[in-house]
Amino acid sequence: MQLIFDGHLDLAMQALVYERDQRLTVAEIRGRERADNPSERGRCTLSFDELRAARAGVVVSTIFIRCKPGVDPNRVILREDADYPCPTMAHANGQMQVSYYKLMEELGELRFITSKGELATHLELWEESDDPVKDKLPIGMIMMMEGADPIYRVDQTAGWYEQGLRCISLAHFGNSRFGCGTTTASEGDGPLTELGKELLVEMDRLGIVLDLSHLSDMSIAEATEIYQGPLIATHSNCRRIADTSRQMTDVQIKKVIDRGGVVGAVLCVSMIRGDFDRKMPHDVSIRELADHVVRVCDLAGNTDHVGFGTDMDGGFGADWIPTEVDTYRDLQKFAEVLSGRGFSDEDIAKFYHENWSRFWLKHLPG
Length: 366
Ligand SMILES: [Zn+2]
Prior knowledge:
This protein is α/β, with parallel strands linked by helices. 37% of the residues lie in helices and 12% in strands. The structure holds zinc ion.
């Protein structure tokens, strides 16, 4: 079984917005939710024990809460709605997610990874264990912010860093106070804001990694000029295969590769094949995900710059991932697919965990 390093999960959002107790099993969480709910309820794919059983020893997990000034304060409040009309509220909700992670660390479920040394020790712990569920190993977590909306003032970024924040993406879908995020369709582009440019300079100063996922083409072009540090795409597929603005162009992928970064392959089927009707059952196979992985490797000329960035349960569930995958542990099946595409055992280990491990062992502080 491969050790998995997942470049993108929204564990706190799933707990605090979807109200999922990640300490339960997948079957228990599914049992508490109605499968006919319009969102992906009843079809979760992961929990802490499921991640352990899948041998997911390290994940990058988000603080994810949005500020959308256009949100109607009079709307019916849906608890799964992560949009707040004012950045003060996004800030406080972001802090709530940090607080969730800290509590989960106290309970032995998670372990914050904030330095090279912590990551190296943590990887050894997982490599030595034959049964992470029985040993109740903590899941290593590098904390990132998906969309910078919780950063109220740029001079507070150092405070977030102190709390363990090591990576930021500037925008989620649509415009943010920092720049332009992609939309789900092919339109949607725009520049960075002045605040976004200031934040990039501060991220460079602090050594916070920039995640390009979700950022629009124009904003990526500007951001990669201003920001001089390492680039990653925690969860993006290839636009040449799935033609939506949410995926990365070959030129953007090459920018990540040139700065030694990694692109995380996403399990969401509309990011594997491109947009199609969500109400219809699909037949997307994990073999199609391999097309994206192979393309990144072709662009790099090696197998060093791609890994998982599954985003599983981050707005979609078991019905919107490839048909061979029901719960998180089924990701182990992908090794055989990669082998069929000519990947050696060494290449497969690089994809599952070594590429992300190498990146973070280099770019976390000493
Ligand atoms: Zn996302």
